[in-house]
Specification:
Blueprint lengths: L5 H10 L7 H13 L2 H17 L1 E2 L6 E2 L5 H4 L4 E8 L2 H8 L6 E5 L17 H10 L4 E4 L5 H14 L7 E4 L15 H9 L2 E2 H7 L1
Parallel strand pairs: 3-4, 3-5, 5-6
Antiparallel strand pairs: 1-2, 6-7
Helix pairs in contact: 1-2
Protein backbone atom coordinates (compact mmCIF):
# COMPACT_ATOMS: atom_id res chain seq x y z
CA UNK A 1 0.00 0.00 0.00
CA UNK A 2 1.25 3.45 -0.91
CA UNK A 3 0.95 6.10 1.79
CA UNK A 4 0.58 9.84 1.05
CA UNK A 5 3.45 10.80 3.37
CA UNK A 6 6.96 9.49 3.92
CA UNK A 7 6.65 10.51 7.58
CA UNK A 8 3.47 8.42 7.90
CA UNK A 9 5.22 5.50 6.23
CA UNK A 10 8.09 5.75 8.69
CA UNK A 11 5.75 5.74 11.71
CA UNK A 12 3.74 2.80 10.32
CA UNK A 13 6.90 0.78 9.68
CA UNK A 14 8.11 1.33 13.25
CA UNK A 15 4.75 0.55 14.90
CA UNK A 16 4.35 -2.58 12.75
CA UNK A 17 7.58 -3.95 14.23
CA UNK A 18 5.75 -4.48 17.54
CA UNK A 19 4.47 -8.04 18.14
CA UNK A 20 0.90 -8.72 17.03
CA UNK A 21 0.58 -5.48 15.06
CA UNK A 22 0.24 -5.54 11.30
CA UNK A 23 0.34 -2.70 8.79
CA UNK A 24 -3.39 -1.97 9.01
CA UNK A 25 -3.36 -1.71 12.80
CA UNK A 26 -0.21 0.39 12.60
CA UNK A 27 -1.94 2.73 10.15
CA UNK A 28 -4.97 3.05 12.44
CA UNK A 29 -2.75 3.86 15.45
CA UNK A 30 -0.70 6.37 13.48
CA UNK A 31 -3.80 8.19 12.23
CA UNK A 32 -5.23 8.16 15.75
CA UNK A 33 -2.09 9.87 17.07
CA UNK A 34 -2.32 12.40 14.26
CA UNK A 35 -5.79 13.44 15.47
CA UNK A 36 -4.68 13.89 19.07
CA UNK A 37 -2.98 16.96 20.57
CA UNK A 38 0.76 17.12 19.97
CA UNK A 39 1.29 16.84 23.75
CA UNK A 40 -0.10 13.30 23.74
CA UNK A 41 2.46 12.13 21.19
CA UNK A 42 5.20 13.91 23.13
CA UNK A 43 4.12 12.26 26.38
CA UNK A 44 4.03 8.84 24.71
CA UNK A 45 7.46 9.19 23.14
CA UNK A 46 8.92 10.52 26.40
CA UNK A 47 7.40 7.66 28.42
CA UNK A 48 8.81 5.07 26.00
CA UNK A 49 12.26 6.68 26.04
CA UNK A 50 12.33 6.91 29.85
CA UNK A 51 11.17 3.30 30.13
CA UNK A 52 13.79 2.04 27.70
CA UNK A 53 16.71 3.96 29.21
CA UNK A 54 15.69 3.97 32.87
CA UNK A 55 14.40 0.46 33.51
CA UNK A 56 16.61 -1.79 35.62
CA UNK A 57 16.74 -5.49 36.41
CA UNK A 58 16.65 -6.37 40.09
CA UNK A 59 20.10 -7.60 41.11
CA UNK A 60 18.49 -10.25 43.33
CA UNK A 61 15.68 -11.80 41.27
CA UNK A 62 16.20 -10.24 37.80
CA UNK A 63 12.65 -8.88 37.65
CA UNK A 64 12.32 -5.45 36.02
CA UNK A 65 12.40 -2.58 38.47
CA UNK A 66 12.85 1.15 38.86
CA UNK A 67 15.51 0.53 41.52
CA UNK A 68 18.50 -1.77 42.01
CA UNK A 69 16.37 -4.14 44.12
CA UNK A 70 12.69 -4.56 43.27
CA UNK A 71 9.75 -3.95 45.61
CA UNK A 72 9.05 -7.66 46.00
CA UNK A 73 12.58 -8.46 47.14
CA UNK A 74 12.58 -5.59 49.64
CA UNK A 75 9.15 -6.50 51.05
CA UNK A 76 9.81 -7.96 54.51
CA UNK A 77 6.25 -9.27 54.77
CA UNK A 78 6.96 -11.83 52.05
CA UNK A 79 8.42 -15.28 52.64
CA UNK A 80 12.03 -15.03 51.46
CA UNK A 81 12.57 -18.72 52.19
CA UNK A 82 10.27 -19.57 49.27
CA UNK A 83 11.53 -18.81 45.75
CA UNK A 84 9.37 -19.20 42.65
CA UNK A 85 11.34 -19.64 39.43
CA UNK A 86 9.68 -18.25 36.30
CA UNK A 87 10.57 -17.73 32.67
CA UNK A 88 10.05 -13.97 32.41
CA UNK A 89 8.47 -10.85 33.87
CA UNK A 90 5.03 -11.64 32.44
CA UNK A 91 4.87 -14.77 34.58
CA UNK A 92 5.62 -12.77 37.73
CA UNK A 93 2.69 -10.51 36.86
CA UNK A 94 0.42 -13.49 36.19
CA UNK A 95 1.22 -15.15 39.52
CA UNK A 96 0.97 -11.88 41.45
CA UNK A 97 -2.49 -11.30 39.99
CA UNK A 98 -3.74 -14.46 41.75
CA UNK A 99 -2.99 -12.98 45.18
CA UNK A 100 -2.18 -16.47 46.47
CA UNK A 101 1.62 -16.41 46.45
CA UNK A 102 3.60 -14.56 49.13
CA UNK A 103 7.12 -15.78 48.44
CA UNK A 104 9.74 -14.16 46.21
CA UNK A 105 10.84 -14.85 42.64
CA UNK A 106 13.72 -15.60 40.34
CA UNK A 107 13.33 -14.65 36.67
CA UNK A 108 15.36 -16.81 34.28
CA UNK A 109 14.93 -14.59 31.23
CA UNK A 110 13.88 -17.49 29.00
CA UNK A 111 13.98 -21.28 28.72
CA UNK A 112 16.65 -23.72 27.65
CA UNK A 113 16.00 -24.40 23.96
CA UNK A 114 18.72 -26.20 21.98
CA UNK A 115 16.75 -25.72 18.75
CA UNK A 116 16.81 -21.95 19.24
CA UNK A 117 20.41 -21.97 20.44
CA UNK A 118 19.52 -21.00 24.01
CA UNK A 119 21.65 -22.75 26.61
CA UNK A 120 21.95 -22.52 30.42
CA UNK A 121 24.63 -19.84 30.15
CA UNK A 122 22.20 -17.57 28.30
CA UNK A 123 19.85 -17.51 31.29
CA UNK A 124 20.20 -16.39 34.93
CA UNK A 125 20.62 -19.97 36.11
CA UNK A 126 24.10 -19.46 37.60
CA UNK A 127 22.75 -16.50 39.58
CA UNK A 128 19.93 -18.69 40.89
CA UNK A 129 22.27 -21.45 42.03
CA UNK A 130 24.55 -18.91 43.73
CA UNK A 131 21.54 -17.37 45.42
CA UNK A 132 20.38 -20.74 46.74
CA UNK A 133 23.87 -21.53 48.00
CA UNK A 134 24.11 -18.23 49.91
CA UNK A 135 20.56 -17.68 51.20
CA UNK A 136 18.53 -19.86 53.61
CA UNK A 137 15.93 -20.87 51.01
CA UNK A 138 13.71 -23.74 52.12
CA UNK A 139 11.74 -24.37 48.94
CA UNK A 140 12.09 -23.63 45.22
CA UNK A 141 8.91 -23.71 43.13
CA UNK A 142 9.56 -24.38 39.44
CA UNK A 143 6.74 -22.46 37.73
CA UNK A 144 7.65 -22.83 34.07
CA UNK A 145 5.34 -23.38 31.12
CA UNK A 146 4.22 -26.95 30.43
CA UNK A 147 6.13 -27.18 27.15
CA UNK A 148 9.10 -29.26 25.99
CA UNK A 149 11.46 -26.36 26.67
CA UNK A 150 9.82 -25.76 30.05
CA UNK A 151 10.21 -29.39 31.07
CA UNK A 152 13.82 -29.45 29.84
CA UNK A 153 14.61 -26.38 31.91
CA UNK A 154 12.80 -27.80 34.95
CA UNK A 155 14.85 -30.99 34.85
CA UNK A 156 18.13 -29.11 34.36
CA UNK A 157 17.38 -26.85 37.33
CA UNK A 158 16.38 -29.80 39.48
CA UNK A 159 19.69 -31.55 38.76
CA UNK A 160 21.68 -28.39 39.54
CA UNK A 161 19.79 -27.59 42.74
CA UNK A 162 20.10 -31.10 44.16
CA UNK A 163 23.90 -30.92 43.87
CA UNK A 164 24.05 -28.12 46.43
CA UNK A 165 25.52 -28.92 49.84
CA UNK A 166 22.19 -28.11 51.52
CA UNK A 167 19.63 -28.32 48.72
CA UNK A 168 16.19 -26.82 49.34
CA UNK A 169 12.98 -28.70 48.63
CA UNK A 170 12.12 -28.53 44.92
CA UNK A 171 8.47 -28.48 43.87
CA UNK A 172 6.61 -27.68 40.67
CA UNK A 173 3.21 -26.19 40.01
CA UNK A 174 0.38 -28.73 39.69
CA UNK A 175 -0.61 -29.64 36.16
CA UNK A 176 -3.79 -27.63 36.24
CA UNK A 177 -1.87 -25.80 33.54
CA UNK A 178 -2.51 -27.65 30.29
CA UNK A 179 0.35 -29.41 28.50
CA UNK A 180 1.86 -27.03 25.98
CA UNK A 181 0.18 -24.01 27.58
CA UNK A 182 2.08 -20.79 28.24
CA UNK A 183 1.89 -19.73 31.89
CA UNK A 184 0.93 -16.13 31.15
CA UNK A 185 -2.27 -17.22 29.34
CA UNK A 186 -3.63 -19.38 32.15
CA UNK A 187 -6.65 -17.97 33.95
CA UNK A 188 -6.07 -16.65 37.47
CA UNK A 189 -8.11 -19.35 39.26
CA UNK A 190 -6.29 -22.22 37.52
CA UNK A 191 -2.91 -20.60 38.10
CA UNK A 192 -3.68 -19.93 41.77
CA UNK A 193 -4.70 -23.56 42.33
CA UNK A 194 -1.58 -24.75 40.53
CA UNK A 195 0.60 -22.70 42.88
CA UNK A 196 -1.26 -23.78 46.03
CA UNK A 197 -1.36 -27.46 45.01
CA UNK A 198 2.27 -27.66 43.90
CA UNK A 199 3.89 -31.08 44.12
CA UNK A 200 7.44 -32.34 44.77
CA UNK A 201 9.37 -32.22 41.51
CA UNK A 202 10.31 -35.89 41.81
CA UNK A 203 6.65 -36.86 41.55
CA UNK A 204 6.17 -34.75 38.46
CA UNK A 205 8.99 -36.69 36.74
CA UNK A 206 7.34 -40.01 37.57
CA UNK A 207 3.99 -38.81 36.21
CA UNK A 208 5.40 -38.02 32.76
Amino acid sequence: MEYPSKLLTQVIDEIAKLPGIGKRTALRLALHLLKQPVEQSENLSQAILQFRTGIKHCRVCHNISDTEVCDICTDRSRNHNLVCVVEDVRDVMAIESTGEYRGVYHVLGGLISPIDGVGPSDLSIAALINRLAEEPVEEVVLALSATVDGDTTNFYLYRKITTLALPPKVSTIARGIGIGEELEYADEVTLARSILNRVPFEKSIKQQ
